[in-house]
């Protein structure tokens, strides 16, 4: 097990996704953010089943940085309740994981 994480969030527009991604990388909260365009999300919200076109952000970071990533997403996001979930990276390329760690220091 490593201390590296993938953090997932979605954004309601390409501009918002880019704004969040750029902030996270520029502030060394993430080594990289991949933006997956126009995913369809179907979810419960306020008693109804809703559907939205969203942009998925795949954020590469560390457990140590998670709270700062979460706070930045909450601050920059237009949603009332933005998704922010972390998935631990059990293993990976040693060189890639070192680059990730070096990029968020």
Describe the protein in words:
This protein is α+β, with helices and mostly antiparallel strands. The protein has one domain (4-96): Alpha-Beta Plaits (2-Layer Sandwich), CATH 3.30.70.120. Helix content is 32%, strand content 39%. A hairpin with a 2-residue loop joins strand 2 (32-45) and strand 3. The longest helix has 13 residues, at 14-26. It is elongated. The mean pLDDT is 96.
Question: What strand line-up does the widest sheet have?
Answer: 2-3-1-4
Q: How many separate domains?
A: 1
Structural class: alpha+beta
Relative strand content: 35-45%
**Secondary-structure element pattern, one letter each:** EHEEHEH
- Rg from alpha-carbon coordinates: 14 Å
Distance between the termini: 20 Å
Low-confidence stretches: none
Q: If you consult CATH, what is the topology?
A: Alpha-Beta Plaits
How helical, in percent, are the residues?
25-40%
Specify the biggest β-sheet. Answer: 4 strands, antiparallel
Average pLDDT, all residues = 96
CATH class: Alpha Beta
Quick one: how many beta strands?
Answer: 4
Please name the CATH architecture: 2-Layer Sandwich
Number of helices: 3
Instruction: Assign an overall shape.
Output: elongated
């Amino acid at each position: 097990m490593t201390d590296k994480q993938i953090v997932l969030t979605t954004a309601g527009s390409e501009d918002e996704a880019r704004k969040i991604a750029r902030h996270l990388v520029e502030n060394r909260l993430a080594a990289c953010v991949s933006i997956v365009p126009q995913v369809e999300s179907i979810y419960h919200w306020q008693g109804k089943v809703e559907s939205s076109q969203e942009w998925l952000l795949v954020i590469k970071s560390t457990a140590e940085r998670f709270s700062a990533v979460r706070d930045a997403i909450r601050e920059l996001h237009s949603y009332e309740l933005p998704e922010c979930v972390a998935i631990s990276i059990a293993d990976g390329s040693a060189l890639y994981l070192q680059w990730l760690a070096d990029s968020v220091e």
